[in-house]
Amino acid sequence: MGWWSDVKERGNKMAEEYGTIWIVTYLTSFVITFTAFYVALMNGFEVGSAAGTAGIVAGAYAATKATMFVRLPLSIAVTPFIAKVLERRKSQQA
Predict the structure, then answer these.
(1) Average pLDDT score over residue span 27-50
(2) Going by C-beta distance under 8 Å and a sequence separation of 6 or more, which residues neighbour residue 78?
């Protein structure tokens, strides 16, 4: 099994273990990355590939997908921490 297969398998286990927290964490990383690329492209950043000519949204999406190799492991790393923080808040409010 390759590195990426291991990461994807761990992502599936995170989804089973953390459920909504995992999904929101991963989607938040996607939205933040997409927005950053979109703003960069809107402000004149030029991409030196075909994705840059396909439109700003398509370029931002392609760039965001290219960062999945960073976003997925990062989401895996921070999800347990986020779950602990949310659990502490929940217990303090009770």
Answers:
(1) 83
(2) 25
